[in-house]
Design the sequence.
């Protein structure tokens, strides 16, 4: 019997401001929506990305998008021992976060920082893997903004989204190797491949490595935005993109439970959903419980 699934997801607290601060939270429930509780509250700097190992939750704080003050924290599964591991100023606006526990590495996208990062799970050895812009003028171009990320440690590949303007149908999906080719800088890697262009507003990613299929949330305009899609991949690029779920309300969070062939997704409107990985049997687990961003899941022991 498969162990039960535990969900972890973020409420940025935009609708719950106290004393001039957003009241962000890390929330958890089981995979059927029971046992909802707060793991950690009072997150004032706008949490966005979340990842988990057997012993820790990692999460990003975007901070003020006009300042270089983003950070990444690590906390025990019970909410204790909350500590910063990537200090303010080391990353500008950290977005989706992935952890590869077997390699001891964190990967994340930096929106206004226009970069893709890697570091050890203790926050050491920070590396910039991709740079899409370096100047204030570059920062004004939302086509340079890196948001969603997925990692394939088996094929040693990295995927990320660059969202483009809000509802602008100028978003893109890219792929590169996990390591920069020898002698090349992060801003002009020869192995970067554009997989898709003209996406409404692509946000988060997750990957079924066993099938070489990406899953993508998109918060752009309908009918192609506010959707969850799957993207079948090949060594050459994209074989096919197929929309699985429509009519979400600012779709952001996305996570897969591949063993159970289940996916979970969330929108900024405050709903959490569950479906089969082909998009069938969609159910709503929660409605209007906050302003939801990133999410992840794990098989509970």
Sequence:
């Amino acid at each position: 019997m498969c162990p039960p699934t535990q969900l972890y997801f973020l409420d940025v607290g935009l609708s719950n401001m106290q004393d001039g601060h957003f009241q962000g939270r890390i929330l958890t429930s089981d995979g059927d929506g029971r046992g909802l509780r707060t793991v950690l509250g009072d997150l004032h700097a706008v949490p966005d990305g979340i990842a988990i190992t057997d012993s820790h939750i990692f999460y990003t704080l975007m901070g003020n998008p006009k300042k270089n003050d983003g950070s990444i924290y690590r906390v025990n599964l019970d909410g204790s021992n909350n500590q910063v591991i990537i200090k303010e100023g080391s990353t500008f606006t950290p977005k989706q976060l992935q952890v590869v526990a077997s390699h001891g590495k964190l990967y994340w996208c930096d929106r206004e920082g226009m970069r893709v990062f890697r570091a050890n799970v203790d926050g050491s050895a920070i590396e910039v893997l991709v740079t899409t812009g370096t100047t204030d003028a570059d920062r004004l171009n939302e086509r340079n903004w890196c948001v969603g990320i997925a990692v394939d440690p088996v094929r040693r590949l990295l995927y990320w989204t660059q969202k483009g303007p809000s509802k602008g149908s100028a978003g893109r999906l890219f792929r590169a190797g996990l390591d920069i080719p020898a002698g090349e800088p992060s801003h002009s890697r020869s192995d970067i491949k554009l997989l898709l262009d003209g996406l409404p507003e692509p946000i988060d990613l997750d990957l079924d490595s066993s099938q070489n299929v990406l899953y993508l949330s998109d918060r752009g305009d309908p009918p192609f935005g506010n959707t969850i899609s799957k993207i079948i991949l090949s060594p050459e690029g994209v074989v096919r993109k197929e929309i699985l779920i429509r009519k979400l309300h600012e779709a952001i969070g996305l996570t897969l439970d591949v063993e159970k062939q289940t996916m979970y997704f969330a929108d900024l409107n405050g709903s959490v959903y569950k479906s089969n990985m082909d998009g069938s049997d969609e159910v709503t687990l929660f409605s209007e419980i906050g302003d939801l961003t990133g999410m992840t899941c794990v098989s509970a022991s």
Q: What stands out?
A: The chain has a mean pLDDT of 96. The helical segments are 136-139.
